Amino acid sequence: MKLLLHICCGPCSIYPVRILREQRMALMGFFYRGNIHPYTECLKRQQTLTEYAARIDLKLIVDEAYDLEAFLRKAAFREHERCRFCYYERLRTTAMFARRGKFDAFSTTLLYSKYQKHDLIRSVGESVASEVGVAFHYQDFRIGWREGVTVSKELGMYRQQYCGCIYSEKERYLGNRSIGS
Predict the structure, then answer these.
(1) Among 88, 109, 115, 131, whose Cα sits 20 to 30 Å from the Cα of 98?
(2) What number of other Cβ atoms are within 10 A of residue 162's Cβ?
(3) Is the per-residue pLDDT at 39 higher than 60?
(4) Which of the four pLDDT bands, split at 50, 70 and 90, describes residue 78?
(5) How far is it, in rounded angstroms, from Cα 49 to Cα 136?
(6) CATH of the domain at 85
(7) Which domain holds residue 16?
(8) pTM listed for this prediction
(9) Alpha helices in the chain (DSSP H)
(10) b/e string for 92-109 if b means 16 or more Cβ within 10 A?
(11) What pLDDT does residue 176 have?
(12) Domain tally for the chain?
């Protein structure tokens, strides 16, 4: 199967890429960056992923767009639903690239993180697949969480401390009490 894998960051790609390659997937990575704040954080994540992709011979598409304002407009006054908007934008953009590139399916490394809303990612992915006409490949990669953390530390990879959006950055410092308080 020819699969386009949305990759949120280098460390989160380690386990899913290994597993998908073991399953004989023809794999290409896709980095979407419009939700990552601040821009310097976006560039750190992009550089780490680009270096890792080169190291493991993973072809990578980097969406050069940086439309933070569009994400903020969608999330404003609906901050508690921001993950849904964010997942949708990332997965829809990935699916659109997959359709143009004639991939059989798309997936995401978001399914690796134990901190993400796994059921919501799956639901949004399946909805986007129906909308765009490219299959969503669902696979629960959370079992490899520890492996990815260990390998990323051994490789000295930049490891971010929040998911990427401005709201999660605020929660990083203030905790969950920050949204809506």
Answers:
(1) 115
(2) 17
(3) yes
(4) confident
(5) 22
(6) 3.40.50.620
(7) 2-178
(8) 0.93
(9) 10-22, 39-55, 68-75, 82-100, 118-132, 145-154, 166-174
(10) bbbbbbbeeeebebbbbb
(11) 64
(12) 1
